[in-house]
Amino acid sequence: MTNQHPTPPSELLQQWATEYWGNPGESIGCGEKYIATQSARWGADQELEACCEWISVCGCDFYGRELRAARRPKPPSLKEQALKALKVLPTPEGQVTLDITDLNTIRRALEALPND
Predict the structure, then answer these.
(1) Distances (CA, A) of 15 to 22, 36, 52, 85, 101
(2) 59: part of which helix (H) or strand (E)?
(3) Best CA proximity match to 4, nearest among 68, 85, 81, 99
(4) pLDDT mean over 82-86
């Protein structure tokens, strides 16, 4: 499940803007996009919680927890991200290459370690 929080597509935002303002060419600002996205996320979270509550009332608490975990997984920890960045395959020459994002992730993970 890649899209854990829906974001309204730009075509739908444009349709809503046209319906509201009555002008098909009306531009949509960052504020409107932000509010639409947050509204979609809030609605999706409310629906998920309602489904989990219904499942729990039916006596299936385990499935409610599993559903919530599947639909709103926790992001990987910094340690998990750094370990994933290190799991790269060597090139045919035997070299391992890391991009700047990987290096920054590993650096942040190392900096987070307690100083002895």
Answers:
(1) 10, 12, 32, 41, 37
(2) none
(3) 68
(4) 89
H or E element in which residue 56 lies: helix 30-57
- Residue-wise pLDDT tens digits, 32-74: 899 999 999 999 999 999 999 999 888 888 888 899 888 888 8
Under 8 Å between Cβ of 71 and 1: yes
Calpha distance 40→34 (Å, rounded) = 10
What tokens does 20 get? 């509201």
Query: Which token pair is 2?
Result: 């890649």
Residue with tokens 């309602």: 50
